[in-house]
């Protein structure tokens, strides 16, 4: 069996800033599970990123544990992958500060997600919101990451990470692995049930716009029944003219592990009511085993915390190796 040292390294993470959605599962986590046998994977709960927006402390603690439990319930094995909480590995913050000194203001000001978040949080335009791409770069570079699974909305973060790493390497030699975006089996892009032109989001203020991974069957049925469609009555794929129907077909296809085209063919001549009914059944069936495992993990007192503590130590060992190299290169006195 190939050793971990010879496998390429993957890093990814999700913020515990809201309840994870069906979109998070079908678009990302489901595919992460498939990567852990082929790659050395770090799957982080990025709680430090979450506090760029004000969080309720008790809710943040609960959601952090919920996200880690969802990782495991989805099939990510803590014996194969490193599942940990970002704030448990202080080297993330330390490398972030160092990389801040090698990142230009112009680069940060061009980040589209900063502009989007700044527009939504005018009352809290903090410096963390501006510099969070540097923390994201530290997350990735700390583990000498080869590949970063990203959606189209995150490619800019890999680009700035590469720019920072290349700049640092030019100054000091080959310190960091230059990461690449992971282009593998693309996850389903799941859109909002109420605004199907927009991606399904855990921060959506309208709870009818998203399906939570832990929603009960009645709630799932109700939300899908209320999903926005159109008035022409024909079930077909057309993202521009029929975004709601296209989204429902995409959800059905992803849950049943068929292509959207196959889903479209299955519903030719059928009505919207039947489509919504079948989508509800598919989603409930897909999430049921995950939800059962999630409840079990969260009910076993101390079990999850012990795993996170053990995995954080594993992550820290790798992080320390990178930071020692960085410290030496930039001239810090050895500890």
Topology:
Blueprint: E1 9-14, H1 22-35, E2 40-45, H2 47-50, H3 57-73, E3 82-85, H4 91-100, H5 105-109, H6 112-120, H7 127-141, E4 147-149, H8 155-172, E5 180-182, H9 217-225, H10 243-256, H11 260-266, H12 272-299, H13 303-330
Parallel strand pairs: 1-2, 2-3, 4-5
Helix/sheet category:
mainly alpha
- Shape field: globular
Strand-residue fraction? 5-15%
Largest sheet: 3 strands, parallel
Q: What series of H and E elements makes up the topology?
A: EHEHHEHHHHEHEHHHHH
Distance between the termini: 37 Å
In the CATH scheme, the class of the largest domain would be: Alpha Beta
Instruction: Kindly identify the CATH topology of the largest domain.
Output: Rossmann fold
Kindly state the mean pLDDT as a whole number?
A: 91
Number of domains: 2
CATH superfamily of the largest domain: HUPs
* Rg calculated over all Cα atoms: 21 Å
| CATH-defined architecture of the largest domain | 3-Layer(aba) Sandwich
Structural account:
This protein is mainly α and 335 residues long. The chain has two domains: 4-182 and 301-330, HUPs (Rossmann fold); 207-296, Tyrosyl-Transfer RNA Synthetase, CATH 1.10.240.10. Helices cover 53% and strands 7% of the residues. It has helices at residues 22-35, 47-50, 57-73, 91-100, 105-109, 112-120, 127-141, 155-172, 217-225, 243-256, 260-266, 272-299, 303-330, and strands spanning 9-14, 40-45, 82-85, 147-149, 180-182. A three-stranded parallel β-sheet has the order 1-2-3. β4, α8 and β5 form a beta-alpha-beta unit. α9 packs antiparallel against α12 and α10 packs across α12 (272-299). The protein is globular, with a radius of gyration of 21 Å.
